[in-house]
Amino acid sequence: MTPTLRPLATLALAITASFASTTSFATETGNTTAPAIIVAPPPLGLSIPRFATKSPLPLSIDFRSKKDEQMDELRIVRRASVVGANVTNVAVGVTLAVLGASSAINGRTKDDFYGDEIKDEQDTRKLASPFRVGLPTLLDQKIVDLFDDDSEDAAKPSYKNTLSITPIAWNLVYHELNADKEHEDDYVLRFAARFTKVIEGEEDRFMHKARSVERGCEYVSKPQSLASWQQNDYEAVAEAQKVATQACIDQVAPFLPAFLGIDSNTKIRAAQLNCKNTFKQCVAGTDGAAEPGAAKKLCKEEYSQCVRDDVKPMISMTPIGQCKDTFAACKATVIDKARALNPNEKPAKSEFVPCATEYKTCVAAAR
């Protein structure tokens, strides 16, 4: 079965971040392996092996929706449920409007529904969410591989903040609302989740919300009849479960450096912050100096040197940084050519147009 993938930059926050049931994956340190803490036992007889992360980043998975529905086993979203709910919503809205109350009538899409429980399966493992059958292990291995590839850092960092995973969908969903009779029983398998991590060093303060990195993944299969999905005790679901797992890993993997704080942007921000903090400390130490003005000037020179030595080299290594360097070199060439003809004359702005055009093309390609 060939899947249809729909990668999401950020999934809608349809599920709140505070759930009643959380599976926490402890971190393996030294020779001691800490088992996962299962706060609530898995439902419906699912036996979940204990798990400890090999990477230094702890993982946690919230399996309960805001309606206290369990999100770790396949559910089904039927056409009648969605249509019925929206008809009720509209009827209530119209009634309130007639009575003079203001009410927004907002229809919900099929993706807004968690679905109903499936009770005709024999083997519950075939319906288990990818987060129950392998995805955390694969994700953890991706993180381990990433640290192994990041040879610039001799020691692995430690993390206080957890990578929180919120399952958003694991269900069979009717394919089309107005399908013809031949396809009215077609369903797709949908899997979606949200990944969130508060940036290290960030915390909620008065009038300040801690900054976080958030990304999502989504997999949607090709449609087939509900009978096909149910055949051989949902064998097709078990096969698609593996595809959904890999699809989610592939979509999230490019953003792991940002979650871990080892991407180039995070490193650049850290270097800039270090230069600024060093500058502030230097200025604070000039209060008792014999010549405060000269001392502060020296602080500015040291700050500029810090930026040249620690920040600019990292910026130059980024795709955008390389575009900027090429642009600066192009401008320098234009100036040198103009001075060769007339040392006292500056080049016209129009002579820099090719440089600007090349820079814009470079930036567009880098993004």
Describe it.
With 367 residues, this protein is of the alpha+beta class. The chain has 3 domains: 4-78 and 115-261, no CATH class; 263-314; 318-367. 41% of the residues lie in helices and 16% in strands. Strands 1, 2, 3, 4, 5, 6, 7, 8, 9, 10 and 11 form an 11-stranded mixed sheet that branches. Helix 2 runs parallel beside helix 3, helix 5 (264-284) packs antiparallel against helix 6 and helix 6 (292-317) packs across helix 7 (319-341).
Give the number of domains: 3
Query: How would you sum up the major sheet?
Result: 11 strands, mixed
Principal-axis shape: elongated
Compute the number of helices: 8
> Which spans have pLDDT < 50 for at least 5 consecutive residues?
1-50, 84-107
Total strand segments? 11
Strand content: 15-25%
Q: What gyration radius follows from the Cα positions, in whole Å?
A: 28 Å
Instruction: Please state the average pLDDT score.
Output: 74
The sequence of SSEs as H and E is EEEEEEHEHEEEEHHHHHH
Q: Helical content, roughly? A: 40-55%
How far apart, in Å, are the first and last alpha carbons?
A: 33 Å
Structural class per helix/strand content?
alpha+beta
State the main characteristics:
3 domains; 16% strand; 11-stranded mixed beta sheet; alpha+beta
What layout of secondary structure does this protein have?
Blueprint: E1 4-5, E2 22-27, E3 37-38, E4 52-53, E5 59-62, E6 75-77, H1 79-98, E7 116-117, H2 135-149, E8 163-174, E9 186-198, E10 212-220, E11 224-225, H3 226-252, H4 256-260, H5 264-284, H6 292-317, H7 319-341, H8 353-366
Parallel strand pairs: 2-4, 5-8, 6-8
Antiparallel strand pairs: 1-10, 2-3, 2-5, 6-7, 8-9, 9-10, 9-11
